[in-house]
Design brief:
This protein is mainly alpha-helical. The chain is 73% helix and 0% strand.
Amino acid sequence: MMMGDKMVITEDALNRVDQHWAVKAVGDDRLARALEVAKVRTVRSAAEHQTAIVFDETGTDSELVKLVATAYEIAAIEGLDALLHPSGDEASVQLRLQARAGAYRAYALRRTLPIPKGPEDLIFHVLHLAALAYCGDQWADLRRWLKEHEREVKPPSVEDATWDNRVLHRLFDCWVRLLRTQGGDDLDGVRGIIADLRKDQEQYESGFLAEFDNAAAQSAAFRLIALYHWAKATELLAIYMEPAGIEAELDEHFEAGRKAASAAQDASLEVILRWLHATSRLMVAGSLK
């Protein structure tokens, strides 16, 4: 089964991922509590003020939900390479199902967490959630979530932002447009943002790097390299949203970006690039449309 084919997340795959060692390590009681909290929050959100649901939460419930979501992500990540580079053998198929099922469970939990206020935390939270939704075949629910939280997920301002954060904030703007895909204007907007970033690079990059000493400058440079590869991959998606033949280019830029993020010791950036790599391939394949 190739990536462009529809791979249904079966009940068996969900049951299997529930038995993954990372999930079992959480403990049955804590797992049940996290799932119950997430379920109640989802129902409350859907019902809004129409009905009162009596359920007492504790101050540690959000951290517990996050912990369990991370456990499911560990299971999903084990199958991420099989999702990126699918083959027909049974082991690969099972790993892809594991990645899908783990992402499905993680998304259902993470979508109930509070949206962070800080710009970088907000960006990584939303993109992380979006990637889990795409990999977990929940893209339609994600689009509803983005619409419901349109005000909260508005791209942060680039005014007074350092050059690396200016790039990050603008890339987030691009990905919100790609994820909601309301038409050609969104895709044109993405291409325009990337073109503007190239112009801004000449103005801001050298001054930004000059602010650091040698060791810190190297780390900052690697972070910029990761962001630039992400920008190029984003541009490719906007130009070729439904083509064949850009998978190798996407792989090149996301893998190079991950290596640069690793060299910069930026774990958050490395993780989000890994998830967005899989998401971009799914977008191109059109398997979730």
